Amino acid sequence: MLVATGGALGAILRYLLTNISKSMFASSVYGTISVNILGSFLIGYFITSNIGNNLSENFVKFFLIIGLLGSFTTFSAFSYEVVDLINSKKYISSFTYIFISIFICIFSAYLGTLLNKF
């Protein structure tokens, strides 16, 4: 139940942020990058935080991390958008998008873990 509820909320949040981004930039790429960076950071933060002391460990693991943030971030949309950029012969854009999505998201998760060390 926690995963399903968190997943529904994460999907709604991703949908809203992607649509806001589309209205500002005419491309969903920026919305996907934004949710993946933010989601990666928050996953790193929650995994290493002691928020479980105030909340149930199951709530943090199943609702926040697996449900909400797992649904909020999206690799399938990223994959589709990269293929679309390649098919449109936008090779530099596709490489930049891949680089940002992979390395910056991993770095964001790392920053999230560092935040809990202070």
Provide an overview of this structure.
- This protein has 118 residues and is mainly alpha-helical.
- The protein has one domain (2-115).
- Helices cover 83% and strands 0% of the residues.
- It is built from five helices and no strands.
- The chain has helices at 2-25, 29-48, 57-72, 75-87, 91-115.
- Helix 1 (2-25) runs parallel beside helix 3 (57-72), helix 2 (29-48) runs antiparallel to helix 4 (75-87) and helix 2 (29-48) packs parallel to helix 5.
- The model has no long low-confidence stretch (mean pLDDT 88).
Q: Segments where pLDDT lies below 50 for 5+ residues?
A: none
Q: How many helices?
A: 5
Which secondary-structure class do the elements indicate?
A: mainly alpha
Q: How much helix, percentage-wise, in residues?
A: over 70%
Strand-residue fraction?
A: under 5%
User: Which shape, going by the Cα principal axes?
Assistant: globular
What is the total domain count?
1
Counting DSSP E segments of at least 2 residues, the number of strands comes to 0
- Give helix and strand order, one letter per element, not per position: HHHHH
